[in-house]
Amino acid sequence: MEATMTIFNRVQELVAPLNPEERLRLIEVIAATPARQPVNVAEDTLPPRAAQVAREQAAWYAMPSATRAHYHSEYVAVYQGQVVDHDSDQRALYLRVRQRFARAPVAVLRADWDEPPTFVIHSPRLERIE
Amino acid sequence: MSYPHDSNYTWAFPRLPVIVYAVAGSMMTESLAAEVDTGADMTLVPLSYLQRIQAEEIYTARLRGHWGNAYPVNVYFVDLEVDGQRLPGIEVVGDPHTSTMLLGRNVLNRLNLLIAGPEQCTVLLSITMTARLLHNK
Prior knowledge:
Structural class of chain B: mainly beta
Largest sheet of chain A: 3 strands, antiparallel
Strand content of chain B: over 45%
Oligomer: heterodimer
Number of helices of chain A: 5
Strand content of chain A: 5-15%
């Protein structure tokens, strides 16, 4: 909350000299800014294999959306920055990848996602206060 | 077969026996008492079990709690067996913080469950039994 107020105060200072048209333009730009940026997992906090998988995943999301759209409704296997296989059956794809690349760090992803997913656990637990 | 709720909570928690299998290979866990959590998008498996069966990460994601706190997590690919029913090719989150498995909706939405609250037990229903209950046959 404190950080939010600091931002408001700073924005107020910055917009003070602007005319109404410029303020409206600024609001439009802010509104068009994505609310959340893609997950950026700090690789040094992950085990080595997980960090490698995260790098393959990042390579996938860095590909042009037109390239990714080619695999619509499928799963993709990404290794060394390249799509090495794809299938609508995730398990069949996984087994082929294991056969071809053994235990190499291959990311197996849903091609329709534009960014890494966020899963939610809605179930808070009630604990007794000691 | 019916499974008793876990009474170590303020209100008893439904649970089911689950075995986790590595997709490629023959490694598997012992039967784990997994809590049935319809509020969870995804199934969570204690990381130590996943490491034991050499399950593999397939991507990273973010796991958010009810009040917005979020953490990066690794997603693994496994087969599950719930009360004897095999569910091939399931994504699960590796949980390094707890020793309890949570069955989330990515698994629960594949099962016909009867949570008998007053009886404090959970039953996995057959397709025939479910059809009978739903269509009053």
